[in-house]
């Protein structure tokens, strides 16, 4: 425990300093209140023993200055050294922020007892601060783990994209917003061509590498505000806010070309695409996905590795 003694009387200062040191505490001396305050600001002592009557800054004022320090700083236990015995004087000192008193002339046995009490209180306060820090660390760790769990609940473990469940949740909100604001909303659904035969020929680890590669191609070529998700198996889906059919078609073509150009190890990889965009006849989010699925089915039935929009199916049949 670091003890700062603020005392302008040389004899009293010498007795106090020696007594504090003999009791095993680290001591420092300030010759007046102003010097004491400077050392408090610089050294953050655990305890201050201050004479009541000092030049420049007296003991009660020094207590008030200590109590005005930011709450984040460590608590400083204060003991006023005084010959004052009147009740009003003691109340003034307590209101100023003093924790305890020592009466002049100094009783060294009482000094030892007062310092023991102070150390016990400061130890309890330090323990409480340590526990508060530990609780904050535990809280931060809990928040981090909750965030991880939340990410795991919404993320596909293989590709790192968002999963089917998360896509459905975001689709609901975006569909409601699009209807409310009269904005278009498009969905791109794609399927890796002949993926089952690829798995059967080269094995599931190689198939997983293809899915990861397709996910990278999609994520790297989609726009920042698009949602890219793995829909299931070899199917992927994109949600395109505020995107009409022409813009969705153009993005679909860009994604198809990006997949086709990928650095595939075993054999070329392609994907078939189906697109749907909200219109006056779109009544529910699920209808949008169903229409994209029908367009995807058309792409696969008509040669694969192509992009078709639901609204154009009638003209293509």
CATH superfamily annotation of the largest domain: Reverse transcriptase/Diguanylate cyclase domain
Distance separating the two termini: 89 Å
Strand order of the largest sheet: 2-1-3-4-5
Compute the number of structural domains. 2
Decide which structural class fits the backbone. alpha/beta
Share of helix among residues? 40-55%
The percent range for strand residues is: 15-25%
Describe the largest sheet: 5 strands, parallel
* Order of helix and strand elements from N to C terminus: EHEHEHEHEHHEHHEEHEHEH
Low-confidence stretches: none
- CATH third-level topology of the largest domain: Alpha-Beta Plaits
Oligomer: single chain
> On the 0-100 scale, what is the average pLDDT?
91
Q: What is the 3D shape?
A: rod-shaped
CATH class of the largest domain: Alpha Beta
CATH architecture of the largest domain, please? 2-Layer Sandwich
- The gyration radius over C-alpha positions equals 38 Å
Description:
The chain has helices at 10-22, 33-43, 59-67, 87-96, 108-154, 164-181, 195-202, 204-221, 245-260, 285-301, 313-316; strands spanning 2-6, 26-30, 47-51, 77-82, 100-103, 185-192, 227-232, 235-241, 271-277, 307-309. The longest helix has 47 residues, at 108-154. Helix 10 (285-301) links the parallel strand 9 (271-277) and strand 10. The protein is built from eleven helices and ten strands. It folds into two domains: 2-130, Response regulator (Rossmann fold), CATH 3.40.50; 164-316, Reverse transcriptase/Diguanylate cyclase domain (Alpha-Beta Plaits). Helix 7 crosses helix 8 (204-221) and helix 8 packs across helix 9 (245-260). The strands form two sheets. The protein has a five-stranded parallel sheet with strand order 2-1-3-4-5, sandwiched between helices. It is of the alpha/beta class and 317 residues long.
């Amino acid at each position: 425990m670091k003890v700062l003694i603020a005392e302008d009387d040389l004899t009293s200062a010498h007795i106090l300093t020696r007594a504090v040191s003999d009791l095993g505490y680290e001591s420092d001396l300030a010759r007046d209140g102003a010097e004491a305050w400077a050392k408090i600001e610089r050294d953050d002592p655990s305890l201050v023993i201050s004479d009541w009557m000092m030049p420049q800054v007296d003991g009660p004022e020094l207590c008030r200055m200590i109590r005005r320090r930011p709450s984040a700083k460590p608590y400083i236990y204060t003991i006023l050294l005084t010959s004052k015995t009147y009740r009003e004087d003691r109340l003034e000192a307590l209101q100023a922020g003093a924790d305890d008193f020592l009466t002049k002339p100094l009783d060294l046995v009482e000094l030892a007892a007062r310092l023991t009490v102070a150390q016990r209180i400061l130890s309890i306060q330090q323990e409480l601060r340590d526990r508060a820090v530990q609780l904050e660390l535990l809280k931060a760790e809990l928040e981090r783990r909750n965030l991880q769990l939340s990410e795991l609940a919404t993320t596909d473990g293989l590709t790192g994209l968002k999963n089917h469940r998360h896509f459905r949740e975001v689709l609901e909100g975006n569909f409601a917003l699009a209807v409310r604001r009269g904005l278009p909303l498009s969905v791109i659904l794609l399927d890796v061509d002949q993926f089952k035969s690829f798995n059967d020929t080269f094995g599931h680890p190689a198939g997983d590498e293809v899915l990861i590669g397709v996910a990278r191609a999609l994520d790297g070529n989609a726009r920042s505000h698009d949602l890219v998700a793995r829909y299931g198996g070899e199917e992927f889906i994109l949600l395109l806010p505020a995107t009409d059919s022409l813009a969705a078609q153009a993005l679909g073509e860009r994604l198809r070309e990006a997949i086709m150009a990928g650095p595939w190890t075993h054999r070329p990889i392609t994907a078939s695409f189906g697109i749907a965009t909200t219109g006056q006849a779109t009544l529910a989010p699920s209808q949008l996905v169903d229409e994209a699925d029908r367009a995807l089915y058309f792409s696969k039935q008509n040669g694969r590795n192509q992009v078709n929009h639901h609204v154009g199916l009638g003209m293509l049949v």
